[in-house]
UniProtKB/TrEMBL annotation:
Name the UniProt record assigns to this protein: Uncharacterized protein
Family per record: Belongs to the GTP cyclohydrolase I type 2/NIF3 family.
Superkingdom to which the source organism belongs: Eukaryota
SUPFAM superfamilies in UniProt: NIF3 (NGG1p interacting factor 3)-like
InterPro entries: DUF34/NIF3 (IPR002678), DUF34/NIF3_sf (IPR036069)
Gene3D superfamilies: NIF3 (NGG1p interacting factor 3)-like
Matching Pfam families: DUF34_NIF3 (PF01784)
Lineage: Eukaryota, Haptista, Haptophyta, Prymnesiophyceae, Prymnesiales
C-alpha cells in the first residue's frame, strides 16, 4: 500500500484554515481551499484535477473528519481509507484520470470510484495543478536544492509564477554529486535516475560532475 497520512479536523477548523465561511460542506471547503492554493487553470491541458468524486453524505457539524493524503489512489489505499472511516482523500494522481463512459466493477478504476462513492469518501486530485502552481511542488523541490532564483521553464500566460517545470539559477556553482545527494536527502530515496541531454558527452558530463 502507498504511504498514507491521517489527520483529524472539525468542519469549523477546516473552514478557518481555508479562510472560508464554515456554513459550506466539508467537501466544498476542502475543494475551494485547494483550488485557491493550486488553481486548476494552471494544470496541464486534459489533466483531471479538482473534485473528481463527491458524496451525498456530509460530515455532521462539530464532528471530526478524517482526511487522507496519498500519491496514488490504489485499491489498497481505498481499503485503508474505508478501515479508517475516511471522509475525504486528497490524491496527487487523478482518479479517475479521464471521464468514464461506463462505471463498472469489472475494471480497477470503476471499482475504486464505486467503493469511494459507496463509503461516502470524496476524492480531490491535485496532479499538475500542484506542480505548476506558484509555490507548488516544483518550486519547493528547486528551492530545496540550493539558494538561487527559481522560474518556470514554460510560464503560464495568466498566472504569474506558474508554469511547467522549473529552472534554478543557483547563487553559487555546485558539483553535480552535491545536487544529487541533496535531492536524495529531500526526497528520502536511495537512487535517482539522471536524464542527460542529447548534447552531453563524456567530457561535458565529467565537467558537470565537477561543477554545474
Amino acid at each position: 500500500p502507498q504511504p498514507v497520512h491521517l489527520c483529524l479536523a472539525s468542519l469549523g477548523t477546516v473552514a478557518e484554515m481555508a479562510g472560508l465561511d464554515n456554513s459550506n460542506s466539508l467537501q466544498r471547503l476542502i475543494s475551494n481551499s485547494l483550488a485557491r492554493r493550486f488553481p486548476p487553470r494552471v494544470a496541464n491541458s486534459g489533466d483531471n484535477v479538482g473534485m473528481t468524486i463527491s458524496t451525498l453524505r456530509e460530515v455532521e457539524r462539530g464532528a471530526a473528519a478524517v482526511i487522507m493524503l496519498c500519491v496514488d489512489l490504489t485499491e489498497q489505499v481505498v481499503a485503508e481509507a474505508i478501515n479508517a472511516h475516511a471522509n475525504h482523500v486528497i490524491t496527487y494522481s487523478p482518479t479517475p484520470s479521464a471521464p468514464l463512459r461506463v462505471l463498472s466493477a469489472d475494471d480497477i478504476t470503476g471499482r475504486i470510484c464505486l467503493r469511494c462513492a459507496t463509503n461516502a469518501i470524496a476524492v480531490h486530485s491535485l496532479s499538475s495543478a500542484c506542480t505548476n502552481a506558484p509555490g507548488g511542488l516544483t518550486d519547493w523541490l528547486a528551492a530545496s536544492l540550493a539558494p538561487g532564483t527559481v522560474s518556470p521553464i514554460s510560464a503560464h500566460p495568466e498566472v504569474e509564477g506558474a508554469g511547467e517545470g522549473r529552472v534554478l539559477d543557483a547563487t553559487q556553482a555546485l558539483p553535480l554529486s552535491a545536487l544529487i545527494y541533496q535531492l536524495k536527502e529531500v526526497l528520502q530515496v536511495h537512487h535517482l535516475r539522471l536524464a542527460l541531454g542529447v548534447s552531453v558527452d563524456e567530457q561535458s558530463f565529467a565537467k558537470a560532475q565537477e561543477c554545474c
